[in-house]
Specification:
Layout lengths: L6 E3 L6 E3 L1 H10 L13 H4 L10 E7 L8 E5 L4 E4 L9 E3 L2 E3 L2
Antiparallel strand pairs: 1-7, 2-6, 3-4, 4-5
């Protein structure tokens, strides 16, 4: 659980690298510990993940439509910034951490 006890983070064994569209589908189709309601977190949600690798960059579900429908935001834990994927758009491979809401 994260600091607000509202999100559960998928185990590190599900921590994989892929392009953005695959990341969205991967999270949506993930089934871990009997739960199948996983999803790619938004920028605000991913900021609450405390067990993330500080040297890793993660995709978020937050898109950047002001640039184009080909760009999304990624989050860098080492500096705490959400950045726009301009260099490679959604076709670049970044790491993914799935989350699910805990009621």
């Amino acid at each position: 659980m994260n600091q607000f006890n509202t999100l559960q983070v998928a185990p590190a064994s599900t921590h994989v690298k892929m392009i953005w569209d695959q990341a969205v589908e991967y999270c949506k189709n993930l089934n871990v510990d009997g739960y199948s309601d996983w999803y790619l977190p938004s920028v605000d949600e991913i900021k609450t993940i405390q067990e993330a690798d500080m040297n890793t960059v993660y995709w978020t579900s937050s898109e950047a439509p002001w640039v184009s429908n080909l760009s999304a935001l990624y989050f860098c834990f080492s500096n705490g910034n959400a950045l726009r994927a301009d260099d490679f758009m959604k076709s670049g491979e970044l790491f993914v951490r799935a989350v699910r809401k805990v009621v």
